[in-house]
Design goal:
By secondary structure, this protein is an alpha/beta fold. It has eleven helices and nine strands. It has two domains: 167 residues, D-Maltodextrin-Binding Protein, domain 2, CATH 3.40.190; 114 residues, Periplasmic binding protein-like II (D-Maltodextrin-Binding Protein, domain 2, 3-Layer(aba) Sandwich). It is globular and about 65 Å long.
Length: 325
Amino acid sequence: MKPNFFHQRLALLSVCFGVLATGQVSAQSDWPKAKPVNIVVGFGPGAFTDGIARIVAQKLSESTSGSFVVENKPGAGGNLATGQVKRAAPDGYTILVHSVAYAVNPSLYPNAGYDALKDFVPLALGPRTPNIITVNPATPAKDLKELIELARREKLSYASSGIGTTTHLSVERLKSAAKVDITHVPYQPAQAINAVVAGHTQMSSTSMPPAVPQIKAGKLRAIAVTSARRSALLPDVPSVTEFGYTDFDDYTWVGFFLPAGTPQALVDRINAEINKAMESPESLEKFAGLGMESTRNTSAEFGRFLRDEVGKWAAVVKSTGAKVD
């Protein structure tokens, strides 16, 4: 009895699915040898996200013998990069490197262009750093209490790494808690610290990497870190919580993401390689020099952390009224 048309089509579909499955397995097993891996950074050269991406890319190249190309895609707080990677094939050959702004932007922008919890696979949490409040040495305030008192007497301004960054939102939270008005002046991340060094603003709120060298050179005075505990890199600098402001544990972090739909086996493989790259002695030394620290984590662990961050910063954006037109 000859097979009917239905059976012929079924057999053909089975062959096709088999070919696709074989190709998918082959692509996963070949990673990252089939072609260069494009690491898309949401910010420009000189940003700490760019520095972390290049440190990890170099180690990935050494450990896998693959080719990893860093592409800077700045614009709209990193949203241009997320849009590019969101549209990329979920084959492991396009990786997004973003900051905590990834978790903030969907609440901050009228249309960020992505859902932080649905459009990407949280691949690995990279190093993180507390934000730090600094002042120009000509500013008379020696600690946070004196700075708040000065802000009540005089008109002050602060530089941040941009609207909607945690460096901005942390100070807005502080202003609300202390009931003071300090004018916000947003800068590009790489230029924010220079504004206070040059005296264009009296104070700044930035991540630690650009601030630490200037503090050690005497060009800035450290006032407080925004984490719940002091930083091991600057143990003499108190935390905001030590001055009575509770619920502050704000960090700037780096995250690695893949397009939604990336096979779990491939996610786990790339996660393991990124963790290995971040755990190398050279990487740890460079992170420490930037005032950053990292811990091994799985994709699932990063996913849980990310859900908490998205909810936390959505609440902060709402309470402070921060927005980007």
